Please model this.
Amino acid sequence: MAAPGLGPVIPARDSHFPQNFHQEPMTRISLKQRQDLPEHLHPLWDRMLGYGDFADSAGVMAHRLPVFAHSWRLLTDLADEALLPKRYLELALVAVSLLNECPYCVAHHTPKLSIQGISEQGATQILDYAAHPELDAVDRLVVEYAITVTRHWNRTRDEIFDRLKQHFSEAQIVELTWRIALCGAFNRFNDVLQVESAQPAPADAQHETPSPA
Model:
């Protein structure tokens, strides 16, 4: 758990990557689009667009329809139920994405956080939650928990759950924990596949089936 007043120490990414790593990103996986999906999944694609501007990430997922369908049914169902207040959800997602240094997820969730009253500059600084002027006590607890689940999940003490239960139901804590953990998976998926640079496949390649090995 982060010490009060101190943000987590994030290792410099450059020390782990070759010097040419930050060249112009290349498309690693092509994008599928709505028309490439089976017709029964078109309504889910439309629900995804209502959730946010995630057609590029969803279009990469759509190469495996179970991945696309299960992921986006889950996200849109949770959004429709709105059990967890959006401010706390977006605080957690931005915090995790900053920890994991995922530019795609930070860029896509920061505007959602601004709708909840956190400035763009404030969003970039939420890992320094203890003295953050735009966060109240519950906001700080959510960010602290996001850091704990992401970095210290295997040595978490009961004390933080005692504090969480003063503000959230058990169902909300389950959802918050699941979304924090899932965000880490999305960070890695979007980052390693360079989703932000993905482009639609040529028309003649859209429906290719890989040959058996």
